[in-house]
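Help!! Second protein's tokens look totally different from the first
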Amino acid sequence: MTFIDFFAGIGGIRTGLEMASHKCVGFVEIDKHATGAYKAIYDTEGEFYASDIRAIEPDSLPKSDLYTFGFPCQAFSAGGRRLGFEDT
């Protein structure tokens, strides 16, 4: 099965899916630090990449069987205000 990793962070969802023998065909992540870590952890050569989901034309997405979406971690991480579920 192929998938695209939206709001990818550093790739936690990707890790699990690749361990189950699925193939990532692209990812989207707006945070430059998370993107740097993602590219250092995974071989993303030749994969679709976009930094801002709002700028993606749907027809530009590669064919895939599954779209994954990361949980918004900013409310819980050191990169955010750490307000948890109280964060808007």
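Here's the second one for comparison:
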Amino acid sequence: MRYLLFACLFVVLGCSSIECPVQNTVACIYHLKDTLKDTLTIKTVRQNGTDTILLNKAQKPVSFKLPVSYQRAADTLIFQTFRLAVVDTVWLSKTDFPHFESVDCGVSYFHQINDVRCTHNGIDSIKISKSFIDYVPDNPHILIYFKARN
């Protein structure tokens, strides 16, 4: 009887695990519709005015994930290509939503993309494919079309 009591207590205490989304990241997935045959670096501007590199010298990228801020209404991304030697700026307007899992877990932020626009030095067009950014990385959020270059 004593062993049965300890076994039940062990099962009850052992099942109270906390499943925080440690491995789940909230990131915007960008997909290049035509392969960029160049090296791409992407920077963003911080609130204090300095910049930081988010993607460093990716060669012939097809798609990539970038983090999304949760303190600003819009993210500013600077796309630099090496061979084409062009710089484009992409503005991603969004609404942030705190996502609560558990008292023991930190708050995550999901995002609703409201608008995306860019300069057109090397980028031909840009459009929203999936407007809600959450943990599910099934489809790209943003589609980018670069200008055809020989």
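Reply: Different proteins will give different token patterns, so don't panic. Residues 23-146 form one domain.
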